[in-house]
């Protein structure tokens, strides 16, 4: 069984992130052999990273924060990721970057893709997160979903966003195909 976790990368009140996260989660649930998990950063209220030793350092002592332990275990239990990210001021949310910073070996050698929203479909946030992913030894795939601004505007006006997201169904399915191929290739390579 392949475990794919969808990470909700915003904790704002009235956030839009839950809608595309649940939409992409529904697409994943239709796939055979995939165990889908939702990792909502609201459920992992980690302090901002302030440890004296970075997680990439060999011999890192055990994490002291209970929520960081839970987050690390959730990341470790995943084979691949779809990260739903807003774009704030040409970049990802601080809470999402912080979630990356707390963990290192648990990210390694796993595939990741993104569902972005905001200005230009979250493209600039995704671009930055791809660079962060490479540093974490994740394998960011080329395919991603860029939710059109019309969906975000509909959300802020209290309207249903289902039709806006449905316009991206074909792209979502192609992105999932690519993510699963890379996830399975990396799992095979890491087990041999």
Automatic annotation (TrEMBL):
What does UniProt give as GO cellular component? cytosol
Q: Where is the NADPH-dependent FMN reductase-like domain?
A: 4-148
Q: Under the GO molecular function aspect, what terms does this record hold?
A: FMN binding; oxidoreductase activity
Identify the SUPFAM superfamilies for this entry. Flavoproteins (SSF52218)
| Organism superkingdom | Bacteria
Q: What is this protein called?
A: NAD(P)H-dependent FMN reductase
Phylogenetic classification of the source organism: Bacteria, Pseudomonadati, Pseudomonadota, Alphaproteobacteria, Hyphomicrobiales
